[in-house]
Amino acid sequence: MLFSDLAGFTGFAEASTPTEVAALLSSYYEVAAPLISREFGGEVEKFIGDGMMATFNSRGDQPDHALRAAGAGLALQRELGLVADRHPGWPRLRVGVNTGAALLRELGGPGNVSYVLVGDTINTGARLEGQAPVGGVLIGDETYRHLPDGAVVQAMSGLMVKGKQNALEAYVLHSLSS
User: Fold this and answer.
1) CB 134 within 8 A of CB 84
2) What is the 3-state secondary structure (H, E, C) of the chain?
3) N or C: which end of the chain has fewer CB atoms below 10 A?
4) Distance (Å, whole) CA 2 – CA 125
5) Measuring CA to CA, which residue among 155, 159, 156 is closest to residue 168?
6) Is the pTM here over 0.85, yes or no?
7) How confident is the model over 36-51, as pLDDT tens digits?
8) C-alpha angle with apex 129: 128 to 130, nearest 5 degrees?
């Protein structure tokens, strides 16, 4: 799972016209969606305002899914950072990546059915994104264990996140090779 969010988006939206907000989101998503799908084989599941959720290995055919998701996170930071550089005052991205099992479930009732990914992996991924440094990628312990030797990380041991009773082992990902 990969989650992203724009830090400071609410303040930007408050100070901007709806047209300016739409231009920002369009500029970001026009870069992000193809990058995730074409370059890393992920699927953008949904855009949630200024946030995005993407999956990797949803068909069970990507044994390197953690590497793909981590690489996509770094690429998003690089490419969307360039977009923000061209527009002073635009908010910067935060990315969280988590690896583990999830279940795709049909939820809702007659006339209103959605297919939703559920499980602790999803919730934890979203919490990691919320704790990621602006301009950074925060990965969970399971994601880290699936990365190749040489990945450059900074440990964030004992990270407490909302709703979790136990601290998480997480890492700020700087690069995938030293």
Assistant:
1) no
2) CEEEEEECHHHHHHHCCHHHHHHHHHHHHHHHHHHHHHHHCCEEEEEECCEEEEECCCCCCCCCHHHHHHHHHHHHHHHHHHHHHCCCCCCEEEEEECCCCCEEEEEEECCEEEEEEECHHHHHHHHHHHHCCCCCEEEEHHHHHCCCCCCEEEECCCECCCCCCCCECEEEEEECCC
3) C
4) 7
5) 159
6) yes
7) 999 999 999 999 999 9
8) 90
